[in-house]
Structure formats: structure tokens, C-alpha cells
Design a protein that fits this description.
Order of helices and strands: EEEHEEHEHHHHEHEHEEHH
Helix content: 25-40%
CATH topology of one domain: Rossmann fold
Largest sheet: 10 strands, mixed
CATH class of one domain: Alpha Beta
């Protein structure tokens, strides 16, 4: 029986990013599918985070950044003149490398986004629902008024995930969400990602190849192209495919060298 065609949430077409006159990433063509985890892997400086930040227009916050080509979100050009970046970030949430809770109570961290956006509904239920989805409710239900800085690093990162999902986004972007965490907290976040993809599309940047192999449905491998002249370092997408193929039978020798540890 044929599998139903997957919906493309993002379609990157010849996407490039410049910082001033420097080309940072060139000619990225990449589909990202609904209710899947897509991992972006590759050596440092290959443009993974730059590509990730292009998906919710975080690069707009850097004055010299310019995105070329097309970034389509459900078929709509995200960089069209009629698109409000603030609305984009409402439907495309972001979780950063280091947990960054607000200096507020656990409750207020979750309630902040829904209140700011004027979301309707019972705030206690919204907060509880987000914390339950982030597998954090049982840990914190008796101390919701405590300052979030009193939580462990792993709990703080799950709080940041709960904060992202409280506003009911469509997509969650994660920029190395486990790099500051211990192995036990890392496995908890990975379990959480596997659970969350039932309701969300997730894109993760990770330096941890084992993590990509464990959690991602699809993986995109980027590398640094230094062939364009002295000092030039341009991030390029080498290939993307189902994760099992990228790690067991990649199409490009550069991917094989990276995933087998020959370079990186």
C-alpha cells in the first residue's frame, strides 16, 4: 500500500543568506514535512543555525542579514512584503541552546505568551496543558509560584519548550537544545520531542550525530565550502534524506566521511 503524500510545511528553494557582503549559506533546497523531526547536522560554521533562524525570521533581528531565494511556509513566501515577522514567530516557536527562562515564576513563564497575545481561555488550564505536554507538570505542580531559576537545567529547558507550545504554534525550532544538559536530561528532552511530533513539526540543529540518529525522521547534512577564494567559508547543503539512509547509505561521500567520523 502506498504511503500518503506528506504535507510540506516548509519548502526552501535556492535559499541563501548574506551577512553584509559575505555569503553565509548558498543555494539551499530543502523540504520539511509535517509531524516529523528534521535534523540539521554538519561541522561548526556550516550554516545550520543560520538556516534554522531563517525559518522564523529571527535573522531579521541582525541588521546586515539578507535572505535570498524562497522560504515557503505552507506555500506562502515568508519573506513577502505583506508578512508580519511577529505573527511568523507566533506560529513558529523557538527553543535555544541554553535554557533561558524569564526571571519570573514557573506559572508566569508559561502564561506570558498567551497573555501577551490575548489568547482566550482559562489561563490555569493553558499553563497546566503546556506543562503536561512538556512532561513537567508532575515535577512543578506544587511550586508554580516559585522562581523558574530554581529549577534544574533540564527542567528549565523543558519549561522553555512548554513556554513555546503554550501559544499553540505549528512548528517548534530547536537550536542545539541539549548541548548544555547532562545525559539524563538529554534523553528526557529526546523522549519529549518524539512525543511532541504527534502535534507539531520539529526542526532541530544538533552537533550530536547519535541524537540525530535517535530522534530524527529526516536529516539534512551541511558542510563548509572553502573553494570560493581566500577566507571564504560558505555553508552548503550536501544532501537530505530519511535519517536511516543518511547514516547507513548516504549518496555523497562527504556525508559518509562526516557520519563515520573521518572529519568534523
Amino acid at each position: 500500500m502506498e504511503q500518503a503524500a506528506k504535507n510540506e510545511v516548509f519548502s526552501l528553494k535556492d535559499m541563501s543568506v548574506h551577512y553584509g557582503s559575505s555569503l553565509a549559506v548558498d543555494s539551499v533546497n530543502l523540504p520539511i514535512y509535517e509531524n516529523e523531526i528534521t535534523a540539521l547536522i554538519g561541522p561548526s560554521g556550516c550554516g545550520k543555525s543560520t538556516v534554522l533562524r531563517s525559518l522564523n525570521r529571527m535573522n531579521d533581528l541582525i541588521p546586515s542579514a539578507k535572505v535570498g531565494g524562497e522560504v515557503l511556509y505552507h506555500g506562502q513566501d515568508m519573506y513577502g512584503s505583506d508578512v508580519d515577522p511577529v505573527q511568523v514567530r507566533k506560529v513558529i516557536g523557538m527553543v535555544f541552546q541554553k535554557p533561558n527562562p524569564f526571571p519570573k515564576s514557573i506559572y508566569d513563564n508559561i502564561a506570558f505568551g498567551p497573555q501577551t497575545l490575548g489568547m482566550k481561555g482559562n489561563m490555569d488550564e493553558i499553563v497546566e496543558g503546556a506543562l503536561k505536554q512538556a512532561a513537567l507538570w508532575d515535577d512543578v505542580k506544587d511550586r508554580l509560584k516559585d522562581n523558574a531559576f530554581g529549577m534544574s537545567g533540564g527542567q528549565q529547558q523543558r519549561l522553555c519548550i512548554a513556554r513555546a507550545i503554550a501559544v499553540k504554534p505549528d512548528v517548534i525550532l530547536m537550536d542545539e537544545p541539549c548541548s548544555a544538559l547532562d545525559p539524563i536530561s538529554t534523553f528526557k528532552i529526546e523522549d519529549l520531542m518524539m512525543e511532541l511530533k504527534k502535534d507539531y513539526t520539529i526542526v532541530i540543529v544538533t552537533h550530536n550525530m547519535q541524537q540525530a540518529a535517535r530522534v530524527a525522521d529526516r536529516t539534512a547534512f551541511f558542510t563548509v565550502d572553502t573553494s570560493r577564494g581566500e577566507g571564504s567559508r560558505v555553508g552548503t547543503l550536501v544532501e537530505h534524506d530519511e535519517t536511516t539512509k543518511i547514516f547507513s547509505n548516504p549518496s555523497d561521500e562527504r556525508t559518509l566521511d562526516y557520519v563515520t567520523g573521518k572529519f568534523g
